[in-house]
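Slack export, channel: ligand-projects

TW: morning all. Re-posting the request from yesterday since it got buried. We need the structure predicted with the small molecule present, not the apo form. The ligand is zinc ion; the SMILES is in the block with the sequence. No rush, but it would help planning for next week.
GE: picking it up
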Amino acid sequence: MNPPEYNITGLDYAQRSHFRYAGPLIDVHSHITTTELNESTSGFPGGAGRAGSLAQAETQLAVARTFGIARTYTMCPPQDIPPLRERFGSLLGFNGPVHKEPDEPNDVAYRVLDQFLEQGVEIIKFWGPPRMSAAGQPVDAPWRLEVVRRARMAGVKVFMLHVSDPDAWFETAYTDILRYGTKQEHYYGLHLLLRMFPDVHWIGAHLAGDPEHPEHLEELLELYPNLYFDTSATKWQVREVSRQRDAIRRLVCKHPTRFLFGVDLLTRHTQVREHYISRYWCQRTLWESDWDGHSPIADGDYRPKPGEPPQVQLRGLGLPEEVLWQVYHDNVLRLFTRRRP
Ligand SMILES: [Zn+2]
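GE: finished. pasting the full token output, ligand included:
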């Protein structure tokens, strides 16, 4: 029998004595939703609203608590917010993913935005990976610009942007350059949004989609004082941050106010508890410890480069405690309390 994806090395996740940080954490990137038996497992999670189950949300948040997570910002459809808020109160903050299909009119996106604004979301998220650009919706599509204008008018100060995707995908799924463009090209839209809206805060999801290139991340941080990166997409970050451990460590220590802890877990109706445990365990191990060994989570995107071992290595950065406080907790609070930049 194959080992489960959440533990291919038979690791004991109760081993946590290497964790160095004893304070609270805030997870700024999660997808805790209601779930239902017949949900689609592709596409956006959640949406069953009051008819859905909160059992998976309960499980994820219970696991989160054992890792010190005090608050989680979740992306869920608008109808999931009331039941989640009633059950979990201040454990959750809300991030509204505004999305529409390429063939839908812009009004669809504006109506979704209105629903999120009625629910008092604190963040608006745009999902603009290469497959969306290829379908005619680049990250800076006109409807997204209008959504920023409207949300900003309504008082939203923080926006999250998924731009680009792993280098590994450009070597496999996105090799048709005419259709998907180069990885670098996907950042034109990010530059445009950040230049057009310098008076709000921007979070580049998944280390702005480019943990493979710390020098590019540094350039972005230096160009835009209102840009932050979240550490989410655990499998991807474990693989690439470990490869570049020293460079990423230097970058975080140089800009400790610009990184935000995030995991990118999704609740799914049939998910097992150990899956949630594995992602929190790997995130904390990566950032705060000097743990060095085979990563316990399966990663189908890993192609060893010359000289690399056959399995992904997780190589902890061992960030200093004062940096951890900022990345794990203080920075995200400052985003919401600080006046616009
Ligand atoms: Zn996500």
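GE: first-pass observations. Residues 25-337 form a domain with the TIM Barrel fold (CATH 3.20.20.140). The two ends are 54 Å apart (CA to CA).
TW: perfect, thank you
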